Amino acid sequence: MNNIGKVVLAYSGGLDTSVILRWLQETYGCEVVTFTADLGQGEELEPARAKAEAMGVSEVFVEDLREEFVADYVYPMFRANALYEGEYLLGTSIARPLIAKRLVEIAAETGADAISHGATGKGNDQVRFELGAYALNPDITIIAPWREWDLGSRQSLLDYATARDIPVEMKRGAGSPYSMDANLLHISYEGGPLEDPWTEPATEMWRWTTSPEEAPDEATYLDLDFAHGDVVSLDGERATPAGVLAALNRIGGANGIGRTDIVENRYVGMKSRGAYETPGGTILLKAHRAIESITLDRGVAHLKDELMPRYAELVYNGYWFSPEREMLQTAIDHSQQWVNGRVRLRLYKGNVAVVGRSSDDTLFDEAVATFEEDEGAYDQADAKGFIRLNALRLRIGARRAARQSDDRGSR
User: Fold this and answer.
1) 6-65+91-163 in CATH: which number?
2) Is 3.40.50.2000 the CATH number for 179-366?
3) What is the pTM of this model?
């Protein structure tokens, strides 16, 4: 890598990436371009620009990607009802391909020779960033400092920063022991006390959600309108994708919605314990499945549920730009043409309940489903033949088992 003249760094302005910035300058003698993405993490990003400039960076990219993030990444994923290992709503995973995409694009725009990120060699993010980058530019050079340098602890990073007068703000706050990542879909917590899977998360750890015990004593009702599987309005008011998710985060958080505490299987092979707050995503998933329940054909709905774990695994493992994920997305998006209508939800002390759903494209036929007189819409006598046909193989199997039992008894 002696020919590296310019590197695009995914830069947050925190300790890790500030040290990486200087390390790249010293190790490769290269120019560094910084890229900072606003994905709705709720932090002021202009200080990152100022810090990068103070460290000698002449090309600084600070970009608001919130609408693109939700419209082109979060919404397509929720059309699939994706849950990794049955619980994780993939908040960190789904943000990585967009960051990788912009790193590659900025490298092309600025004539950079390589891109760099601050993901560690133990985590999933290194895989997600790099698979995404290689899918978009197979010849891209990637520098992952955590796999190269000998700085193996937070203290060693602090010592490095002190020795080189790198300004570092303690972004984790007053003694917070957790490693956190946030965007419009979620905030995650790892490390510290959470490394013991028996230890309950401290009450003060949670930042977005009210404790369910302390949530309002009166329920909150929401109406969400869907068009082709995506929420387009909240309580009758049109809203952008990012606007919808931000509002659902606020409302859901106030009602104690969206806390999860899980042990997941990382792609790199280890188990990892993480806690997540995903209030808006929890509401969105519940509502989407509700509108699908009246608009999707049974066969399509069941096939989607069979495909979902594979889709979720692809997102988790970093294969967003893979041909198989794109193939699945085409099928999923095709299924959403009739997923239109309104869902009414009741939020109460950490719970989300569906209390109503309606659609002009519904497949729910009250004349057929009713327990009252259906005036000939459904002939109940037809069920006899249906049951006997479906029971045929069971009856044949039962007769064989009976013959075998009789044969044993006669010996």
Assistant:
1) 3.40.50.620
2) no
3) 0.93
